[in-house]
Amino acid sequence: MGGYHVAHRATSYTKYIGIASTLKLPNNCGFEKDSAATVYDGVFPEFIHGFYKNSYGLDVGVIYRDKKFKLFYHSFSNTCNPTDGDVEVNVSKRDTIELKTYLSGNKILAEAWKNSVKLKTLSIPLTSAAAQAFAGGAKINRELVIAANRHPYIPCDAYFSDTTFSKSTLTTTSYTYEKLRISNSKLLRYADEGTMDRSRYGYLPPTEDSGGYVIDTGSCDFR
Fold first, then answer.
1. How high is the pLDDT of residue 1?
2. Owning domain of residue 42
3. Is the Cα torsion angle 168, 171, 172, 174 positive or negative in sign?
4. How far is the C-alpha of 25 from the C-alpha of 30, rounded, in Å?
5. pLDDT, tens digit, 9 for 90 and up, residues 4-39
6. How far, rounded to the nearest angstrom, does the alpha carbon of residue 154 sit from its chain's CA centroid?
7. Could you tell me the CATH number of the domain that includes residue 161?
8. d(C-alpha 118, C-alpha 107), whole Å
9. How many other C-beta atoms can be found within 10 angstroms of the C-beta atom of residue 157?
């Protein structure tokens, strides 16, 4: 898989079982559709939380696909069965939602909330080995990315503008809570292959709000 990771922020520690973030959806966005219904080779904006521990890992969050926003996940083959899934969420461009993802027994639950109302839940089945590993704490990523499942992928119709992750609260294995800050995380910007074309993406320097939560805002355009 290819693509541009405009803002990949990873926790400095491997001790978390959940994260809840405020996500301001893009002002505008587009995607490159799959070439066929059974072929996953499109290019899509994704706004995700990632859970990673040892050889286990999955990304879960919001994808813009088929002119709709969906809760989705994609995992390593040893982590979830099936390895992919999604469900449509009734939200629009420019909306601000809360994205909650957390370990619950042998599942990861992903929830989309708006104005304190839960819109949708996606239940993600973990393998027993992955569930056991994550129960001991995982490293969690927060990302603004365009993921490409074909080569080459530039130019294409995929893009997103002015998208923001903020106010992320982490849940530890002891069920205490931590703010995601600049000091307890690391920010990367990278392409999965080669180098990023600076004309294709933009970002605001990361800042912290008055409560100490780190804010990441970015845009990307493959057109």
1. 72
2. 2-221
3. positive
4. 12
5. 999 999 999 999 999 999 999 999 999 999 988 888
6. 21
7. 2.60.120
8. 18
9. 13
Torsion sign (Cα): 34, 39, 43, 45: positive
> What's the whole-number average pLDDT of the chain?
97
Residue type, 95: D
Give me the DSSP letters along 152-180. S-SSSS-EEEEEEEEEEEEEETTS-EEE-
For the chain, give the percent of residues with pLDDT over 70. 100
Which residue shows structure tokens 């909650």?
100
Q: Which residue in 66, 87, 80 sits closest to 126, CA to CA?
A: 80
Counting the structural domains of the chain, the total is: 1
Q: Which residues contact 66 (CB under 8 A, 6 or more apart)?
A: 31, 33
Q: Are strands 96-104 and 16-24 parallel, antiparallel or unpaired?
A: antiparallel
Tokens of 201: 């993406």
Q: Quickly tell me which residue has 């393998």 as its tokens.
A: 127
Rounded to whole angstroms, how far apart are CA atoms 146 and 48? Answer: 11
Quick one: pLDDT at residue 87?
Answer: 98
**Cβ-proximal residues to 122 (8 Å cutoff; 6+ apart), any chain:** 60, 71, 72, 73, 85, 86, 87, 109, 110, 111
Closest CA to 160 of 39, 32, 8: 32
